[in-house]
């Protein structure tokens, strides 16, 4: 139940990732002041947002980046979302707000080279494209977070199913041992019945003739019966433990299946 509640909480966080207002800003890059743009992404930490942007730039748009002064930098590369030119793109992310209501401030600087930063004053068309792209950032972060969660769930599912296979093998072996132990108990029971009949027969014989040799045979047979009874008792104890182990294994299998079902349900809910 707790995991289902956590799922709804996770999805509600993703649903609350909404577009924020994009503002022009002045960003510090080392000692330089650069004109850029900033946007806040709610309910997302800086590390996740940075990873989502990096994945978008480098996997979808096939750009190659470097890191300097806490910025991820893409120099002299095409980026069709902004326009037809080659651009120098700088971005950095910073956690803002309290932990329970955490957000990330994203700062992006775009230039056409030589630190000629794009603004609404010098290039309103490209600036507008930058704003439009940044307004999609919450969706990019949401998709990235969902993919991360799906990867995590699939990894957990793989491990759970592997554990299940191992437990099912253990259960099969345990049932085989129980079957073999029941056969041993039956065999010992048969031996006890025969030994009891043998003792009764010897006792009748001794009652008739009081032969000391027969009395010795009775004594020997009684000891053999006691030994069989001890073996039977120990075997029955082992059987009880085996059955307890099977009950525990079945409970573990039930819990394992529940976890598998929960993760498969969550994967369906997030469409993965």
SSE topology:
Blueprint: H1 2-15, E1 23-29, E2 32-42, H2 46-60, E3 66-68, E4 71-78, E5 86-96, E6 103-111, H3 124-135, H4 137-209, H5 212-269
Helix pairs in contact: 2-4, 4-5
Describe this structure in words.
This protein is α+β, with helices and mostly antiparallel strands. It folds into 2 domains: 20-135, TBP-like; 163-269. Helix content is 63%, strand content 18%. It is built from 5 helices and 6 strands; from the N terminus they run H-E-E-H-E-E-E-E-H-H-H. It has helices at 2-15, 46-60, 124-135, 137-209, 212-269; strands spanning 23-29, 32-42, 66-68, 71-78, 86-96, 103-111. It has a 6-stranded antiparallel β-sheet with strand order 1-2-6-5-4-3, covered by helices on one side. The longest helix has 73 residues, at 137-209. Residues 1-19 have low confidence and may be disordered.
């Amino acid at each position: 139940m707790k995991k289902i509640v956590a799922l709804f909480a996770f999805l509600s966080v993703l649903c609350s990732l909404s577009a924020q207002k994009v503002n022009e800003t002045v960003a510090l890059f080392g000692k330089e002041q650069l004109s850029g743009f900033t946007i806040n992404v709610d309910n997302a930490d800086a590390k996740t947002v940075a990873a989502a942007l990096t994945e978008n730039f480098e996997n979808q748009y096939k750009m190659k980046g470097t890191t300097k002064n806490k910025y991820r930098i893409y120099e002299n590369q095409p980026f069709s979302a902004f326009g037809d030119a080659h651009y120098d793109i700088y971005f950095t992310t910073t956690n803002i707000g309290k932990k329970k209501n955490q957000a990330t401030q994203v700062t992006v600087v775009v230039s056409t080279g030589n630190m000629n930063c794009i603004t609404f004053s010098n290039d309103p068309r490209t600036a507008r494209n930058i704003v439009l792209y940044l307004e999609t950032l919450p969706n990019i972060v949401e998709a990235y977070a969902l993919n991360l969660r799906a990867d995590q769930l699939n990894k957990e599912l793989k491990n759970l199913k592997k554990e299940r296979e191992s437990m099912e093998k253990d259960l099969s072996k345990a049932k085989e041992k129980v079957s073999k132990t029941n056969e041993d108990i039956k065999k010992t029971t048969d031996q006890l019945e025969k030994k009891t009949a043998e003792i009764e027969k010897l006792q009748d014989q001794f009652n008739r003739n009081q032969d000391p040799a027969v009395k010795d045979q009775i004594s020997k047979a009684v000891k053999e019966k006691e030994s069989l009874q001890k073996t039977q008792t120990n075997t029955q104890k082992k059987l009880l433990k085996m059955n307890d182990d099977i009950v525990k294994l079945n409970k573990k299998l039930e819990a394992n299946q529940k976890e598998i079902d929960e993760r498969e349900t969550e994967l369906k809910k997030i469409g993965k």
